[in-house]
Amino acid sequence: MARRGRRGATLQEIAQETGVSVATVSRVARGVGQVSDDTRRRVLAAIERHDFRPSPLGRGLAKRSHGALAIVFPGLSGPYYSEVMGGFEEEAMRAELAVVILGTHLLRESGQLVRDTAARVDGLAVMGGVLSDDVVDRLRDRGDPVVLLASGPRAGIPTVRTENVSAFDRLTRHLLVDHGYDRLVFVGDPDSSPDAAYRWTGFGQAHRYAGAGTPASPVRVGLTQSDGFIAMDRLLDAGPPPRALMCANDETAIGAVLALLDRGYRVPQDVAVTGFDDIPMAGLPVSGLTTVRQPMRELGAVTAQVLLREIDGSGPAAVDHVLETHLVIRGSCGCGTT
Known about the structure:
The protein is of the alpha/beta class and 338 residues long. Helix content is 43%, strand content 13%.
């Protein structure tokens, strides 16, 4: 006997039965988007067999009934988040939609918090690492348009991210090969986010290329200036400083520079320091931070554009958008010094 009602059949089950994506089932059920006649007939037949009915929320999405988008971060402080939010908000404003900004701070109940938010908006952009795969899949399966940003690619879910592995590889090779430094230390927690994990991968990849052996374990701290200060203090208390410190982001790097100066060390003569992001402070003469520029504002804008296409059913079912990054050489790595 066919299962009946919304509780008996999910978008995922219908997608598996008909051999199409969850997004395609959602589009057919809501009557939106570009779907071939043959696919539409197969999906409609499966919907009829299961007596599947999209939720009132799902039906309302086609008309953007809530008039709002949500963007979900682990926190809200710092120039990186403000830039991404700025780009996202600009695109939402062009579409005449409000923006709900949710900082979960990685709370245990954040999954339920995001699900509750999804019921009040037309679609969600979720930063990678904020929610478990299970929560993201549940949002997708119930028909909520979801886009992941700064995340690794996921089957059936659009992602928007910047290139990290090759960028950090190039930066690390610059220190290992061009400058001939040894004893490089990575500051950041690869388990904290997909971006940090990709950068750690690039760090190891460059060591293998340069024949520099296995790199030391990362100094696992957060991504704020105070975290960078603490990490550098910890290293200096443990013994002689590394020749170069490669931080997972600019804020951490700036904190590390402040700790070095506080202890009487010179940057880059005693310790070279690099970052990632190219926040405005990184380019100040007092900072002069060698880093990788990622298009933070564009990351937010493209994420909003992809999410709007998901809501309207006008975009491909799932695409991995990768934005370019660029190496920015300044003085903190040792270039331009004598």
